# Entry
Amino acid sequence: MRAIAVLTGLALLTTLAGCAGVDAPTPSTVAATATPVPPTAAGIEVVSEVVARELKAPWALAFAPDGRLFVTERGGTIRVVKDGEAQSPPYAQIEVATVGEAGLLGLALDPEFESNGYLYVYHTYSDNGGALMNRVVRWQDDGEKATNPSVILDGIPGARYHNGGRLKFGPDGKLYVTNGDANSGGLAQDLNSLAGKILRINKDGSFPEDNPFPNSPVYSYGHRNPQGLAWHPDTGELYATEHGPVGRDEVNRIVAGGNYGWPTVSGDAGDARFRDAVAHSGVDTWAPSGAAFYDAEALPPEWRGRLVFGALRGQRLVWVKLRAPDYRFVEEQGALFARRHGRIRDVVQGSDGYLYFATSNLDGRGSPKEGDDHILRIAPVNGGLSRHEASDDSGPASAARGAGSPVR
Ligand SMILES: [Ca+2]
# Structure
């Protein structure tokens, strides 16, 4: 809808210029002068701006309190983005197994990063027998590079596909880890396996005493391949995005001990044994990955409280807004940048209040564009360098279903 509004605005500008009796502008002049047209006239609210270019399959973004933006690349590097460039040589080069979707995935900075310099990564590797496994490793920042690695959680089944991989610290100071089913659906229902789970561990890798299952890092189970974690700014409750089988990609509200259905059901099956998704993609495909609740002032006020997540195969940013006071139903949903930037892997909120996201067009499944992969940010249209207007793409094909289905 908004894309149409922009075109109308440009056409109007051209017409007015022609009628005013001034020299008729050449097409290129029209294009150049059209960019700063007061955007409210066209209904455009936000734009995407390029933050960094030429990354290779970036997977996770994390801002340090000192302003450094850390990014993992799936092949095994951690880079620091400074002044619009991903710095070389890389901040860290980690030996990982890179078959299929596997490799260096999640990254989280310690809540006390300023004092202890700890950062945590999730990656796939081949064990001595050649089997693919995943683990969480803590590194320490020395100001220029990562040193002093220490494995804090191991034994997470890996596979060519479905390795999960998101790491985030919750408001409770615990480290949450998403794991896929490692291409073996039954493991998601096996509480003795770490596959198909969302885990909750202490910073040193030990298991919190208030976890739902005794002496276990398992926090929730029955997951196929969750890749996004975010906590609602008002309730502090956890939400996760998850790749569904064919369609039925999910947004789940995660509770301790919850069973989210895989491989028996997906979406909102209404089966009392399992928890239904808060929202799912129906027959459409999002292939959802990194997620963030928007909780700042820099973007227009309607953005506050939106859960924004990257869609890989869906090639857009999707958002859902949940209904107060318990946030178990979808109130509104939409999407941005449909097919504009390609596959999108991660979304985080920066300390400047803008939303940052990373493309994943070099992951073997995309159509790379010039300068890929990119890190971009969403800024208000009058807030900086306008590069791409955000056209809304919230048509029926991308509608989030599940509104009205209770979450137990
Ligand atoms: Ca499910």
In short: The longest strand covers residues 146-157.
